[in-house]
Amino acid sequence: MEKTYPYIEYTRESYPEAEMINRSKEFYQWMDKRRTVRDFSDKPIPKEVIENILLAASTAPSGAHKQPWTFCVVTNPDLKKQIRAAAEKEEYDSYNGRMTEEWLDDLAPLGTNWEKPFLEVAPALIIVFKRAYEFVDGKKKNNYYVTESVGLAAGFLLAAIHNAGLVALTHTPSPMNFLCKLLARPENERPFLLIPVGYLANNTQVPDLKRKTLEQIDVFYE
């Protein structure tokens, strides 16, 4: 198949083996400090920081380079209040009938419930939408590997938030269709993640969780 994109030369620096090992270890140790939190300061985040975080997220790979994502940033207090009310309605129904007993048992050690005050306290809510299709010249054109692509972008987003010295929570009230209505999103967009972002509150505590060891997650074929 003939290439239609203009191609440009690409180079990437590499490192001696010892430095590569050290850099990979240091990055892992730094990322291992990332935690999900529910206690935020209400201190505003500079808009430029949020913009740079979104640009970093948008460097993620995507199917056929369709970049099928939209990042909605909510800082308006009234809108955050509406989002909290709608999310808590769904969460209440989930905790009181939708979730299985096994699911509730797994959540019990974390002490979570249907109440989500962080949706109002956090200075910014980043709502990640996935774009199922586009309209180009009046015609509907599908995007490809949409969930996978947006998942990758969300991972980049969380790393960028961590890099900026901020904290976040990946919140997934289900269903999330209320976000389409509250944010007046077009019909080709579906909510994927609701991420409160901000500075860490004073005296924040997190569960003393342990991540899986390398032996529990790797399989090498040599």
Label the overall shape: globular
Alpha-carbon Rg, integer:
20 Å
Strand order, sheet with most strands: 1-2-6-5
| Spans where pLDDT lies below 50 across 5 or more residues | none
> What's the main sheet like?
4 strands, antiparallel
Strand content: 15-25%
* CATH fold-level label: NADH Oxidase
According to CATH, the homologous superfamily is NADH Oxidase
Estimate nothing, just give the exact number of structural domains. 1
Record field, number of beta strands: 6
Structural class: alpha+beta
**Gap between N and C termini:** 34 Å
Q: What top-tier CATH class fits best?
A: Alpha Beta
Q: What fraction, in percent, of the residue positions are helical?
A: 25-40%
How many H/I helical runs? Answer: 8
Pattern of helices and strands: HHEHHHEEEHEHEH
At CATH level 2, the architecture is 3-Layer(aba) Sandwich
Query: Kindly state the mean pLDDT as a whole number?
Result: 95
In short:
The chain is 39% helix and 15% strand.
Task: Walk me through the structure.
Strands 1-2-6-5 form a four-stranded antiparallel β-sheet. A hairpin with a 2-residue loop joins strand 3 and strand 4 (139-142). It has one domain: 3-Layer(aba) Sandwich (NADH Oxidase), CATH 3.40.109. The chain is globular. The protein is built from eight helices and six strands; from the N terminus they run ααβαααβββαβαβα. The model has no long low-confidence stretch (mean pLDDT 95). The relative contact order is 0.20. The protein starts with 16 loop residues before the first helix and ends in a 5-residue tail after the last helix. Helix 2 packs across helix 6. It has 222 residues and is an alpha+beta fold.
